[in-house]
């Protein structure tokens, strides 16, 4: 297995998240970092596009690679999203598997933050388009000061996360920092989704993307104890 | 300390008991919101199906500790809503009954309209709807554009336009639609509409959470409205339209806050039930959550008592709704952190609580709109700065 960590890998994944959605960005990241593998988090959970769920012969369990047939797998559901559905599953890897590869894990975990940043930035753009198209009195919702403040708060989170990520290679940020970046993105998403009004509460739309983005962090981050 | 009296404590105890059925069915209903049709015989569903109908129209709810609770008071509703939402909010919002529309009827309808509406509700469990939000107008509801063209000598009044995100509309048999007869705030009217009606179409929208609410998109094209279906036709225009939905929302808002509170409590209880031993820091976090839930509950109850005393006093209710919606959000998110990696994938109930909590931001006005209302109350002096609970008669011991 070769994993080549190149700066443009993150930018491709980040861009795919912004322009093409969760499924395309996950495919981009998984193909670059964990080709042919089913990426699973520390408790065995996977959130992957249908193609990866169907095509992976081996499982990557938070750094350890095993045969897919070796563990018990359970489908947990499918979420419909713009740009392609994702499947939720859990693959129970027998304890004691060895061959932990820190390099792959470092690439995957860093890429995931870039991916979620891209999704969150796109959510901000979607919210701005929505708000600009809605009126109150003789102005748009986007021009309401409370709304501008929320957009700016989201932007500040994005800028800080990006500032921390910029120029950073795989493995250079410890899990605690990565977890913090994920928490920042989750907070930004939650505030931005509110700006979409009830349209952000519909299945299959941008609110669902934000929910899946949050689930990605939950599935793949190692919780702090 | 502010306390509920024995009557209300008995109500709470009984509804909490009824809630066990709701909790057992919550996940199944989330998968299939139509499942509620098989459970009309549950005591809580039966109670909700007539909640809010005054006794003089023939409502005889089952007695609780020797009292009958008609659900006509915001404080009673807040207590009932918190308990049932804590059990399962999906079952609560899926249940048939007069709820939102009923409060408007109580406020606005003439005797004949009340007889008709309540009479139908007492015959069999029916869903009702309350259609205000439009595809292009949500928070700015006063600018709604659905029209009701007045009757002429040769045809009845005609209702046309679109509504969106309206709870239970697709399966409701009757409801109210806000529409305008002319521009400006005095041109808004509420009309009673039956489903099916020619030209009326409602379709459920798939949502992330609160799936039991079956929020729907409605289109109306020349739906005929008989003169007796104009609510408050005996009142002046200033008491019919916008005034009516503002008052209705004031009365309902403490109940919405209580629903959010119930979700927060459910998250807290889930952690207590499913984590047998807690580290010190975890216990502290959970205690803090309990204190926040308790504080929010006091505010909700006072807000309810305030609108019961004076319908116009909805400012405390705005404060309570913002606080409780945020709490539901925070509590459900916090609960996930007690269950390790992939908590929501492993605990469907927790996942559902998070999804349900998100919807509380929007029901009955977003946090921004509530904050603007609260500020207005403070700025205009309508919210008493020195004694904000002056009009909220709750027992203080
Ligand atoms: C589960 C559920 C049930 C519902 N049930 C019903 C129902 O039964 N009947 C019904 O009529 N409607 C119902 N609604 C709709 C609900 O009332 C609206 O979603 C709500 O009023 C917000 O409107 P909107 O979604 O169009 O958001 P918008 O009005 O488009 O708001 C978008 C964002 O802009 C902000 N905003 C808007 N105006 C301002 C301003 N002036 N200043 C600052 N910020 C502003 C909002 O806070 C929000 O964050 C329901 C919604 C949900 C989710």
From TrEMBL, chain A:
**Gene Ontology terms for molecular function:** oxidoreductase activity, acting on the CH-CH group of donors
The UniProt entry, under InterPro entries, shows: AcylCo_DH-like_C
Under the heading SUPFAM superfamilies, the entry gives:
Acyl-CoA dehydrogenase C-terminal domain-like
* Record-given protein name: Acyl-CoA dehydrogenase-like protein
Upper taxonomic classification of the species? Bacteria, Bacillati, Actinomycetota, Actinomycetes, Pseudonocardiales
Automatic annotation (TrEMBL), chain B:
InterPro entries registered for this protein in UniProt = Acyl-CoA_Oxase/DH_mid-dom, Acyl-CoA_Oxase/DH_mid-dom_sf, AcylCo_DH-like_C, AcylCo_DH/oxidase_C, AcylCoA_DH/ox_N_sf, AcylCoA_DH/oxidase_NM_dom_sf
Gene Ontology molecular-function annotations? acyl-CoA dehydrogenase activity; flavin adenine dinucleotide binding
Q: Give yes or no: UniProt keyword Oxidoreductase.
A: yes
> Which segments cross the bilayer?
none
Q: What cofactor does this chain's UniProt record say it requires?
A: FAD
Q: Where is the Acyl-CoA oxidase/dehydrogenase middle domain?
A: 130-223
The alphabetical list of record keywords is: FAD, Flavoprotein, Oxidoreductase
Residue ranges annotated for the Acyl-CoA dehydrogenase/oxidase C-terminal domain, each copy included: 240-376
Quote any Pfam family the record assigns: Acyl-CoA_dh_M
Q: Which domain of life is it from?
A: Bacteria
Instruction: Please give the SUPFAM superfamilies that the UniProt record associates with this protein.
Output: Acyl-CoA dehydrogenase C-terminal domain-like (SSF47203), Acyl-CoA dehydrogenase NM domain-like (SSF56645)
Q: Say which family it is in.
A: Belongs to the acyl-CoA dehydrogenase family.
Instruction: Read off the PANTHER family from this record.
Output: ACYL-COA DEHYDROGENASE, ISOVALERYL-COA DEHYDROGENASE, MITOCHONDRIAL-RELATED
Q: What is this protein called?
A: Alkylation response protein AidB-like acyl-CoA dehydrogenase
Species in which this protein is naturally found: Umezawaea tangerina
- Taxonomic placement: Bacteria, Bacillati, Actinomycetota, Actinomycetes, Pseudonocardiales
């Amino acid at each position: 297995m070769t994993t080549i960590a190149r700066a443009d890998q993150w930018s491709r994944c980040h861009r795919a998240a912004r322009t093409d959605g969760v499924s395309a960005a996950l495919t981009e990241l998984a193909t670059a970092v964990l080709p042919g593998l089913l990426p699973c988090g520390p408790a065995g959970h996977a959130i992957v596009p249908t193609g990866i769920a169907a095509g992976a012969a081996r499982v990557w369990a938070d750094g350890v690679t095993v045969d897919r047939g070796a563990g018990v797998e359970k489908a947990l559901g499918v979420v419909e999203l713009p740009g392609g559905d994702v499947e939720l599953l859990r693959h129970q890897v027998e304890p004691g598997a060895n061959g932990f590869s820190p390099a792959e894990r470092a690439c995957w975990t860093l890429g995931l933050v870039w991916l979620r940043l891209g999704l969150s930035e796109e959510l901000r753009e979607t919210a701005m388009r929505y708000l600009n198209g809605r009126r109150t009195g003789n102005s748009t919702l986007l021009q309401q000061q409370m709304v501008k403040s929320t957009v700016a708060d989201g932007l500040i989170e994005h800028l800080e996360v990006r500032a921390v990520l910029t120029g950073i290679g795989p493995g250079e940020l410890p899990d605690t920092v990565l977890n913090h970046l994920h928490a920042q993105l989750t907070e930004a998403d939650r505030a931005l989704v509110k700006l979409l009004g009830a349209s952000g509460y519909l299945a299959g739309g941008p609110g669902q993307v934000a929910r899946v983005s949050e689930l990605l962090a939950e599935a793949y981050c190692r919780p702090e104890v | 300390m502010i306390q509920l009296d024995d009557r209300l404590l008995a109500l709470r105890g009984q509804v909490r008991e009824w809630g066990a059925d709701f909790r057992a069915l919550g996940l199944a209903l989330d998968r299939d919101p139509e499942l509620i049709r098989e459970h009309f015989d549950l005591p809580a569903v039966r109670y909700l199906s007539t909640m809010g109908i005054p006794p003089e129209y023939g409502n005889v709810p089952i007695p609780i500790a020797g009292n009958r609770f008609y659900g006509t008071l915001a404080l009673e509703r807040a207590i009932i809503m918190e308990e049932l939402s804590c059990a399962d909010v999906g079952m609560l919002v899926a249940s048939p009954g007069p709820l939102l529309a009923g409060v408007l009827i109580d406020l606005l309808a003439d005797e004949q309209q009340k007889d008709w509406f309540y009479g139908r509700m007492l015959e069999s469990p029916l869903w009702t709807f309350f259609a205000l939000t439009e595809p292009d107008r949500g928070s700015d509801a006063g600018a709604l554009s659905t029209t009701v063209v007045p009757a002429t000598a040769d045809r009845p009044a005609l209702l046309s336009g679109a509504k969106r995100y309206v709870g239970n509309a697709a399966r409701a048999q009757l409801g109210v639609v806000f529409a305008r007869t002319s521009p400006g705030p005095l041109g808004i009217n509420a009309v009673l509409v039956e489903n099916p009606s020619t030209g009326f179409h409602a379709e459920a929208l798939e949502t992330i959470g609160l799936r039991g609410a079956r929020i729907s998109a409605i289109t109306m094209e020349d739906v005929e409205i008989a003169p007796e279906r104009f609510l408050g036709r005996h009142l002046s225009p200033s008491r019919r339209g916008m005034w009516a939905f503002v008052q209705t929302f004031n009365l309902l808002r403490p109940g919405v806050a209580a629903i959010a509170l119930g979700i927060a409590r459910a998250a807290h209880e889930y952690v207590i039930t499913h984590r047998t031993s807690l580290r010190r820091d975890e216990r502290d976090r959970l205690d803090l959550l309990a204190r926040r839930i308790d504080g929010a509950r006091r505010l909700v109850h006072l807000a309810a008592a305030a609108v019961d005393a004076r319908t116009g006093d909805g400012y405390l209710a705005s404060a309570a709704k913002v606080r409780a919606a945020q709490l539901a959000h925070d509590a459900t998110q916090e609960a996930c952190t007690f269950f390790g990696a992939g908590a929501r994938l492993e605990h469907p109930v927790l996942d559902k609580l998070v999804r349900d909590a998100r919807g509380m931001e929007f029901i009955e006005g977003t946090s921004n709109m509530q904050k603007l209302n609260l500020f207005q109350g403070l700025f205009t002096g309508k919210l008493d700065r020195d004694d904000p609970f002056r009009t909220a008669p709750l027992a203080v011991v």
